[in-house]
Amino acid sequence: MFINEKKEIIMKIKKIHVAIVVVIFISIVSLNACKTIRNNFTTPPKPWSGYCKVKSHVSSYDPNKKTVFIIADPKVTEMFDMLTPFYLFNSTGKANVFIVAKDKTPILVKRNLFVLPQLTFKEADSLKAKADVIVIPALSIRDENQDTAVISWIKRNFRADTRILSICDGASTAAATGLYDGKSITCHASDLESIQRHFKKLVWIRNVSVVKDGNLFSTAGVSNAVDGSLIVINELFGQETMQKILNEIRYPYPEVKLFHESIVLKGRNKFTVAMKILFRSNKEIGMLLKNGINEFELAGVLDIYSRTFPASFKTYLLGDSTVQTKYGLTLINTGDNSIKGLDELHVLSPELFTKADQVFFKNTKIVRYDHQQKQYLVDKCIKRIGDQYGSRFADFVKISLDYN
């Protein structure tokens, strides 16, 4: 009898130990994941509210150049969709390039980071400039219930020789104009089926990076903003100009790659993300903003690393709250400069990383981007992510970018 009681006590003690271990394990996992979950899923970034005192810089209009208008939505505009064409068309030196919106409300591109539109629709109309290209990034609305001011402006400025470039899920806004009815179009592989249900008058295409139907262009997902912009640049300004830009950004192919694998995000990809969030290192990442920052690099690093679901991703601006990008966009940073817990800081312009910056971030790993390195930015980032989190997670990031 005594022996049985002793065994029961031992078993109870073992169960208590197991329970304690389980509770500790769950607590550790929860602590590891909670900030990541909060910042990426449960607390969405907030659009700008209230009046903005900052005035945007607007380049002078040159009537001898082609004019490119890039549509923006203050609630949220996909940063790579918007900033990549802005950079690439500006890099030609042959275009007026303007980010336009219905008002001057700063555009949310990332938590606490905003871009000022350069022109309102009314101001753009006052230029009396023909729209040679209208770029439509992925905006906040992805079905037929579009902002009528946006749709009206696009239709009013479209001419027979105007080229429209729809990027990623900007296809939903492009489709809502009716201009693509009966025409071929594409969008992000993982969203094509859901968007297609709202727009059945279009011919939806898979497995191509850029679709051209007359003067109407569209691209697959986020990363294909590059391919679409290069194709239109080639049509507007010729092969030599396009090749110059292609070489400048270290595009990984000798010419624009049109073949594309439309791979849809599946359950196993989401499981890979869940395992990373729960059990891997969820880094607190930062980026230092400087005057003259390259728009393509800015959008690339922010967009790609945001897809790693970090514990946080902050932008830092020391000494001011605004900077001017290479081609004159005004960035507004509303976050603080606390570096507590910061694991790594991405520096896009190492030559501008001062001694004062080094002192401020002295205990933080600095990730520098060498402009002499002959590697395409997207490939560079994905390779590093693969080294950090493994090939399966890197594959998820590629699919989320539609980079296949």
Instruction: Give the CATH architecture of the largest domain.
Output: 3-Layer(aba) Sandwich
* Beta strands, count: 17
Low-confidence stretches: 17-35
What letter string, H or E per element, gives the SSE order?
Answer: HEHEEEEHEHEHEHEEEHHHEHEEEEHEHH
For the sheet with most strands, the description reads:
7 strands, mixed
At the fold tier of CATH, the topology name of the largest domain is Rossmann fold
Q: How would you characterize the overall build of this protein?
A:
- With about 400 residues, the chain is an alpha/beta fold.
- The chain has helices at about 1-40, 80-90, 120-125, 150-155, 170-175, 190-195, 225-235, 240-250, 265-280, 295-305, 355-360, 375-390, 390-400; strands spanning about 65-70, 95-100, 105-110, 115, 120, 135, 165, 185, 205, 210-215, 215-220, 285-290, 310-315, 320-325, 330-335, 345, 365-370.
- It has two domains: about 65-250, Class I glutamine amidotransferase (GATase) domain (Rossmann fold, 3-Layer(aba) Sandwich); about 265-400, 3-Layer(aba) Sandwich (Rossmann fold), CATH 3.40.50.880.
- The chain is built from 13 helices and 17 strands.
- The chain has a seven-stranded mixed beta sheet with strand order 5-2-1-6-7-11-10. A four-stranded antiparallel beta sheet has the order 3-4-15-14, with no helix packed on it. Strands 13-12-16-17 form a four-stranded parallel beta sheet.
- The N and C termini lie far apart (about 70 Å).
- About 45% of the residues are buried.
